[in-house]
Amino acid sequence: MEGGNIRQWLNLLVCALLLLIAEASYVPITYLQNAVAKGAVCLDGSPPAYHFDRGSGTGINSWLVAFEGGGWCNNVTTCLSRKTNRLGSSKQMAKQIAFSGIMSNRQMFNPDFYNWNRIKVRYCDGSSFTGDVEEVNPVTKLHFRGARIFAAVMEDLLAKGMKNARNAIISGCSAGGLTSVLHCDRFRALLPRGARVKCLSDAGYFINARDVTGAYHIQQYFSQVVATHGSARNLPQSCTSRLSPKLVMLFPTIFSVTYHYANLLCKRSIRLMAALNNWRDLSSPFPDPQNVVLIQIKNILAPGVADPEGHWHSCKLDINNCSPDQLDLMQGFRTEFLRALTVLGNSSYKGMFIDSCYAHCQTEMQETWLRSDSPELEKTTIAQAVADWFYERRTFHQIDCPYPCNPTCHNRVFEPQDDHQGV
Length: 423
What we know:
12 strands; about 30% helix; 13 helices
């Protein structure tokens, strides 16, 4: 009997592994060695890198450039901690990663973008590709060169065929989602005038909200990011002319970045996000050593510095552990978050898919992108909503009812697969 149970368990395990293999393809890494001479390097001085799966057939002139997420580093100490892992050194990056969700090359899992040129740009600068400091401290040997990495990657992809793009999307999740918005106009300017170019930001909108103690901790944090990396000169000028650079990265009033949406600058973008958004930062700048799974609620509403006794620790790990009072505060945060989006309006160029799933980064996870049990709004999956928005089949502006009303939300802690590498 016991042997039969073991065989049954092994059969289930094999089936699960086969399903994962079928849903994802593995793409090797490309190092930009020639970028080093231009000073376009990771925090440790190693060359930038990306993964490139070439398009075919009708997708040969369509390009999807996705930027990896992974939080930020706001000072020398937190940036030094990244030098020894993949978020600060290409030497520590996996030689191949899985492409799934919007990056998948399987038509059944990604019907509208499967045969595009799909690129995953690895994240190793800690500034959402905005930093550019010429001087390198001889002691720390840290390089703050994120903006140069962006320029070097774009130059390389243009030479490999992107200069002929007819369709193009710049995308990303979390810090990568912020990248897609901050560089949206810059990306558009590189491509042919007649091309359809849009910006997709998944879980990359971070509001300027008070934490549980009433302090604006997140504002101070982003101010430090901008100062450390010299980011101000590489932020959209149409925003920095009206706002402090630290607020431009927070998008408190000018534009939204979270869902597959972009901003008022670009007018051709879409946001994709969960209103109770999971935010995972592997280098956790917020002191909470027992918890590497962070969310906006954890980093903005209840960061470690605002919760020294750990009252929110269990809740932040699993929403089922939250008390009624904590859930009330989280719903209040959701309301504030949605209020921050009202300034954006509902242009036909913009899209919005805001579900109430307790999740983070949903476009590159097959389970949330497109499967039989994927999250839906108005009977529409994220994959369908993004494709309809990009090809302008219909306008999609949907905001979910409050948690936990949506039965298609499974409220698992979804994370991009490559965010686990090196942990």
